[in-house]
From TrEMBL:
Pfam families registered for this protein in UniProt: ABC_tran
Protein encoded by which gene: sufC_1
Keywords, sorted A to Z: ATP-binding, Nucleotide-binding
One of the record's GO molecular function terms: ATP binding
Xref: SMART domains: AAA
Occurrences of domain ABC transporter (ranges): 4-248
Record bears the keyword ATP-binding: yes
UniProt-recorded name of the protein: ATP-dependent transporter SufC
Species this chain originates from: Bradyrhizobium ivorense
Keyword Nucleotide-binding: yes
Cross-referenced InterPro entries: AAA+_ATPase (IPR003593), ABC_transporter-like_ATP-bd (IPR003439), ABC_transporter-like_CS (IPR017871), FeS-cluster_ATPase_SufC (IPR010230), P-loop_NTPase (IPR027417)
Summary of the function given for this chain in its UniProt record: Involved in beta-(1-->2)glucan export. Transmembrane domains (TMD) form a pore in the inner membrane and the ATP-binding domain (NBD) is responsible for energy generation.
């Protein structure tokens, strides 16, 4: 079943067109990797899907669970199950990770007409999830991402994803700035969240992440379009030959 359908999408900022007729279909239960050179539109796609302001959609559509995603505000998309893990998570001093997580989770539940978690129930839930992802309890008491290492910031993103239980997870260069040990930990957390009901879009420059998160489909983007799609062997081809062939074709 198609969870996400992007059809002939044209997107720009001011007078610069970035996405030029992009098509993409992601089914429930699938993991799609999107690779491509800088400036190809990978992050723009993730931002437009999640509802970041500042982009102009001039043509095309995005369907999520069969509904018009572009007609929804960013908070409505989140409540409906869209989650974006940032390449560079922001630091918010004065707000503990625990308080942030509780506010986010209860806001989502309220939007879905579900009962909000009481403090004891929430603490029990977040501790269980953190333990399952090997996240130290001490991280929960610290300011959100304040003083966190790159690996800790990315693990905190995975903790948010696990608590919010989205239908579509978009991971924008989540391997950026991670050493090999942190990469294994983060990838393990992501793999633990794979399910038949959940789809993931993994955006990356490098094949090494795909050694740990094995995708069902790999897409190569160049100059605002998907130029080629294939299996995980396509990532090996990219490592051997680079992106030049797709840049030339575009």
């Amino acid at each position: 079943m198609a969870l996400l359908e992007v059809r002939d999408l044209h997107v720009g900022i001011e007078d610069c067109e970035i996405l030029r007729g992009l098509d993409l279909t992601v089914n429930a239960g699938e993991v799609h990797a999107i690779m491509g050179p800088n400036g190809s539109g990978k992050s723009t796609l993730s931002h437009v899907i999640s509802g970041k302001p500042g982009y102009q959609v001039s043509a095309g559509q995005i369907l999520f669970k069969g509904e018009d995603l572009l007609a929804m505000e960013a908070n409505e998309r989140a409540a409906n199950g869209v989650f974006l893990a940032f390449q560079y998570p922001v630091e918010i001093s004065g707000v503990t990770t625990m308080n942030f997580l509780r506010a986010a989770l209860n806001a989502q539940r309220k939007a879905r007409a579900q009962k909000e978690f009481s403090t004891p129930d929430f603490i029990k839930r977040v501790r269980e999830v953190a333990k399952s992802l090997n996240i130290p309890q001490g991280m929960l008491k610290r300011g959100l991402n304040v003083g966190f290492s790159g690996g800790e910031k990315k693990r905190n993103e995975i903790l948010q994803m696990a608590l919010l239980e989205p239908s579509l997870c978009i991971l924008d260069e989540i391997d950026s700035g991670l050493d090999i040990d942190a990469l294994r930990i983060v990838a393990g957390g992501i793999n633990a969240l794979r399910s038949p009901e959940r789809a993931m879009i993994v955006i990356t420059h490098y094949r090494r992440l795909l050694d740990y998160i094995v995708p069902d489909v790999v897409h190569v983007m160049s100059k605002g379009q998907v130029r080629k799609s294939g299996g995980k062997e396509l990532a090996l081809e990219l490592e051997a030959c680079g992106y030049a062939q797709f840049e030339d074709a575009a």
